Amino acid sequence: MSFVNTREEIGERATLDGLIDGTLVELKDNILTTSFMDRALYRNTALKTLVMPKVLPGGYTFSYGSSDPTGVEIAVVGHRGSNQPVGWFYYCTHLHTLDWVDTGTGAFGANFAAYCANLKTLILRRKSGIVAYNNASCWLGSPLHTDGSGATVYVPSALLSTYQNATGWSAAPITWETIEGSEYENYYADGSPIE
Amino acid sequence: MAIKTESLTINGRAFTLTYSDANRYVVRDGVAYTEAYDPSEFGRVYTEGDEIPIDENALIPDKAEAYDILMGASE
């Protein structure tokens, strides 16, 4: 059984019930701006798509360890402020596309996407400056690590050269693309239009 | 306790790896790195920062077990 839950179609209660009992397959909400608690989506094993561009994940939102409790494949989440998100996608081995809707200034934190073994597409939407590659543990075990298998990263065209010469990013096995002119210019990673 | 650098080549490009031999961050422009890979031509200089904390990963299995006990998870 699967649901496509939106605030308008089914309502908040159905979405909440789906989160609690772990049956939710997609969670999409472009209105909420609150933050997830730490470990909020632990054990939501059915969840494959998360699109909440204005919500901040908490620490280790999707995991509690190395057992890969969530099946999230596509995530569109927000970031703002100066905090360094720690372990938000730690061990999300099904995650292949992360759309980072970033209006903040903070760098990635420790274990941010560590052991996301299939993370092959990263979209960095911050326009005010680059997002620092930061600690080695951010990307350990993922294709974006210095020793990784390689991934494609989409960035604003005005920041492309800066990223290509930036600490950490410059040494990582990355294929750089610009958001402008790509499928992500006007759409989030799940295909929903950017409002 | 000192900042160390190493020269290496990645995909035909010269890089400088900067790190601390005292388990401390290396810091530049307000950003702290556990280690920093930079294209050598930029000559970036770092200062030594705070001690790198114990990896929270080491604590996660214990926390997970405690969580499971509290929530009555079945085996």
Write a concise keyword list for the protein shown above:
heterodimer; A: 195 residues; mainly beta; eight-stranded parallel β-sheet; 18% strand; B: 75 residues; alpha+beta; three-stranded antiparallel β-sheet; 1 helix; 16% helix
Provide a descriptive summary of the structure in words.
The complex is a heterodimer of chains A (195) and B (75). Chain A is mainly β and 195 residues long. Helix content of chain A is 8%, strand content 18%. In chain A, strands 1-2-3-4-5-6-7-8 form an eight-stranded parallel beta sheet. The longest helix of chain A has 10 residues, at 12-21. The two termini of chain A are 30 Å apart. Chain B is α+β, with helices and mostly antiparallel strands. Helix content of chain B is 16%, strand content 44%. Chain B contains one helix and six strands. Chain B has a three-stranded antiparallel beta sheet with strand order 1-2-5, with no helix packed on it. Chain B has a three-stranded antiparallel beta sheet with strand order 4-3-6, with no helix packed on it. In chain B, a hairpin with a 2-residue loop joins strand 3 (24-28) and strand 4 (31-33). Chain B starts with a strand and ends with a helix. The interface between A and B is medium-sized, with 25 and 24 residues.
The count of strands of chain B amounts to 6
Shape assignment of chain A: globular
Oligomer: heterodimer
Read across the widest sheet of chain B, the strand sequence of neighbours is: 1-2-5
Note the main sheet of chain A: 8 strands, parallel
Head-to-tail CA distance between termini of chain A: 30 Å
Averaging pLDDT over every residue of chain B, what do you get? 79
Query: What portion of residues of chain B belong to β-strands?
Result: 35-45%
**Rg of chain B:** 19 Å
The low-pLDDT segments of chain B are: 56-64
